[in-house]
Amino acid sequence: MVSRIPKPTINRLCKIYSLLEEFEDKAEITVSSKAIGERIGVGSHSVRKDISYLGEIGTVGSGYEVSKLKTHIGQRLGLNVERKACVVGLGKLGRAIMQHEKLFSGNFKIVAGFDANINLLETIVTDIPVYPTCDIIETVRRNAIEFAILTVPGHSAQEIVKRLIGGGIKGIINLSSATLSASMNESVFISNIDIFGEFRFLSALFTLEGENK
Amino acid sequence: MVSRIPKPTINRLCKIYSLLEEFEDKAEITVSSKAIGERIGVGSHSVRKDISYLGEIGTVGSGYEVSKLKTHIGQRLGLNVERKACVVGLGKLGRAIMQHEKLFSGNFKIVAGFDANINLLETIVTDIPVYPTCDIIETVRRNAIEFAILTVPGHSAQEIVKRLIGGGIKGIINLSSATLSASMNESVFISNIDIFGEFRFLSALFTLEGENK
To answer: Are the Cβ atoms of B18 and A200 closer than 8 angstroms?
Structure first.
């Protein structure tokens, strides 16, 4: 799992890519490393260094050409390659993500949804095929699904991950309350995002902050 | 903004709290630091150290009493205090979060939703009052709303944050694609969560990983 580009750089390049999409929507032609840095929260030097990992790219005056830089980053990081993904856990959050416009405009294509509740599956209105969670291994394998978004309750996350790995999944975005560790199985990338845990964290910071005043 | 408990510890204590809720639901009476550590991805020593920041708490055999530890953490971190929150940006994701069951069972109460699109506001079916974004300052102030969840497009995030701060907001969970920095205004806690950026990041990792094989 060694890559020549450091992970924090890859992460920032992805952010720069999102930003360039936005600039393109606003029909902006050029952008400076300073303007990029301000939006992603780092200095302009750091932006230039991150971009330099991709090899030579011409600058115009004090900046970059928006569309050229976007294509450059996109090709190098494979952000123009379509990736098949699935959503596991079709509660409100899972359904919102399954049907989120941004996933479709990006390079992710949700091709399946899963839920343990058969009754729920029967009532969901969506163009995306939905299956019971017992079909995960077979469905992921048959459709060559690479990525999964977990929106299941924390206590069932580990079992679901086992099945996803069994089907050959490559990456998991974990939105359940469970913290999943990639070291449990190194062939899969796991990204833990605990939205509701963040709420608690902010609330606790605020409480303790109040005490120390 | 100095707190006697380090931030990473506060973060882990919040995760432990979520976990204890889950154990309570499963009617488990005691839990060991090892079992907690396995679930939140740290060693048992680290779990015991985090819990020790809260002061003395009795252990039973090799573990803790689930309900006692939960009350202990909850009181110390103020997780039992109700916090008023709002959602800004009522697309599919914003609406899903506004109506998410977990927020209501936790200590956050969503008391308002905001969107720039007046037509959208008229069609939303919800028990929670919704307002146009131009009313943010007044509504946040009048209802003493402490926290906000941002699910707006990245380019409008900064302007919305200004208004939220104008209304006296204390903490922001930023789910937009923009990275917001707390240093722009130190009186507010900002937590950046870029779900769709995480997808890109995983996709890029996977691409670069493939190259290096």
So the answer is: yes
Interatomic CA distance for residues A150 and A91, integer angstroms: 11
pLDDT band at B58 (very low <50, low <70, confident <90, very high): confident
Q: Chain A neighbours among B 137-176 (CB < 8 Å)?
A: 146-147, 153-155, 170-171, 173, 175
What is the DSSP secondary-structure string of A113-149? Answer: EEES-HHHHHH---SS-EEEGGGHHHHHHHTT--EEE
Domains, chain B, ranges and CATH?
Answer: 7-75 (1.10.10.10), 83-198 (3.40.50.720)
Residue keyed to tokens 């163009």:
A127
- Mark yes or no for CB contact B18/A106 under 8 Å: no
Give the CA angle between residues B153, B192, B3 to the nearest 5°: 145
Residue A212 to residue A162: CA distance in whole angstroms: 44
d(CA B43, CA B34): 7
* Rg over CA atoms, chain A: 20
pLDDT higher than threshold 80 for residue B131:
yes
Of A178-187, B56-65, B124-133, the range with the lowest mean pLDDT is A178-187
Residue A92 to residues B112, B115, B125, Cα–Cα distance (Å) = 18, 19, 14
3-state secondary structure at position B147: strand
The pLDDT of residue A3 is 47
Helix ranges restricted to H, B64-153? 66-77, 92-98, 101-105, 118-123, 136-142
> What is the pTM for the complete model shown?
0.76
Q: Is the distance from CB of A33 to CB of A63 less than 8 angstroms?
A: yes
* Average pLDDT for B148-164: 90
Check residue A2 and give its pLDDT: 39
Give me the phi and psi of A60, to 5 degrees please.
-115, 115
Q: What does pLDDT average to over chain B? A: 86
| pLDDT over 50 (residue B59) | yes
Check CB contact under 8 Å for B3 and A208: yes
Calculate how close chain B gets to A15, using CA atoms only, in Å. Answer: 7
Mean pLDDT of A14-19: 89
pLDDT digit string (tens) for A113-140? Answer: 999 999 999 999 888 999 999 999 999 9
Which of A18, A181, A204 is the closest to B79 by Cβ? A204
C-alpha torsion sign, points B117, B118, B123, B127 = positive
Chain B residue numbers touching A147 (CB-CB < 8 A): 199, 202-203
Stretch among A2-6, B22-26, B152-156, B200-204 having the lowest mean pLDDT = A2-6
